[in-house]
Amino acid sequence: MTFTVEYEREEDGRWLAEVLELPGVLAYAPTSDEAIAKAQALALRVLADRLEHGETASEFMNISFAAA
Length: 68
Hints:
The protein is α+β, with helices and mostly antiparallel strands. It has one domain: Double Stranded RNA Binding Domain (2-Layer Sandwich), CATH 3.30.160.250. The chain has one helix spanning about 30-50, and strands at about 1-10, 15-20, 25-30, 65. Strands 3-2-1-4 form a 4-stranded mixed β-sheet, with helices on one face. A hairpin with a 6-residue loop joins β2 and β3.
């Protein structure tokens, strides 16, 4: 699985990072690197929850993130 992280600076100076393939997975932070890291961590939590509840194939996964 490859996930795309888009990030942009808001008018108030905060950075917003969003994982496009997982609706609702986004994070704000004071720097772009922090926002990306927070979004990636949240994406992994969402995937773990889906695995735990049988919502995703339980076979071994290879997960990577690409900045857009």
